[in-house]
Design goal:
Strand order of the largest sheet: 1-2-3-4-5-6-8-7
CATH class of the domain at 9-141: Alpha Beta
Strand content: 25-35%
Distance between the termini: 26 Å
Bound molecules: coenzyme A
Helix content: 25-40%
Radius of gyration: 16 Å
Number of helices: 6
């Protein structure tokens, strides 16, 4: 199966098995699936486990809790504009990648956050790669993202995941940089991104 043909719209709820070829050998056991509206309490618990620094990098300031309204907004998505994937270990969310379409064009803003304990094991890379597949299938051709200029991990993920995006522009505004990326075309992905896609999500 080639990259593009197996992609689904996010509301169709696919999940990616743990032996997916995108996985690095050192990655802690988890599965990735689309976020669901019943994830709101899970997302709130995930947020409470994040360090202050991880929260600051994701929300650009203090954000100690995720309120009920915000948690609903982050989990009850409009599939026409939003997509979000969660990495799940056991019953815990350990990573989230999302995009929100900007206007009516083929551009979306992306954001990622991974549980401190799970950072540096390839989960951010995996979420970006899978999210780019969904985006491509939904007609999105560009991702944009804001991140702190000293956020080496995030910049590294964006600049070293050619199977997902190619960074084409970076502008700086004080301590924040704005990245503009082209979403990879299926032909650029090659065999590394083929993998089995399972049509129904397990109840995780
Ligand atoms: C940014 C983030 C999502 C990346 O997720 P992750 O699962 O840790 O990322 P990965 O493990 O896939 O990749 C991290 C890469 O960055 C590298 N890296 C880690 N820390 C780094 C640092 N301080 N400077 C440079 N590179 C770094 C790793 O070596 C790895 O590269 P590799 O794949 O070549 O080995 C995660 O670190 C996070 O949640 N950070 C806090 C929230 C945040 O910054 N969000 C971004 C807002 S858009």
């Amino acid at each position: 199966m080639t990259f593009g043909s197996g992609v689904t719209r996010v509301h169709e709820r696919r999940w990616w098995p743990m032996d997916n070829q995108l996985r690095r050998p050192d990655v802690p056991a988890h599965v990735v699936r689309s976020i669901r509206s019943d994830d709101a309490p899970r997302l709130q618990r995930f947020h409470l486990r994040l360090s202050a620094d991880t929260i600051r990098r994701r929300f650009f300031g203090a954000h100690p809790t995720l309120g009920d309204v915000e948690a609903r907004r982050f989990t009850d998505l409009d599939p026409a504009t939003d997509a979000a994937l969660v990495a799940i270990a056991g019953d815990r969310i350990v990573g989230v990648g999302r995009y929100v379409r900007i206007g009516t064009g083929g551009c979306a803003e992306v954001a990622f956050v991974v549980d401190d304990e799970f950072q540096g094991h390839g989960i951010g890379t995996e979420l970006l790669t899978l999210l780019s597949r969904i985006a491509r299938d939904d007609g999105i051709r560009r991702f944009v993202a804001d991140t702190f200029a000293d956020n080496g991990a995030m910049i590294d993920v964006f600049t070293h995941t050619p199977g997902a995006v190619t960074v084409e522009g970076i502008t700086r505004d004080g301590s924040v940089i704005h990245l503009s990326m082209r979403v990879a075309h299926p032909a650029e992905i090659g065999s590394a991104a083929t993998g089995a896609f399972t049509p129904e999500a397990p109840r995780l």
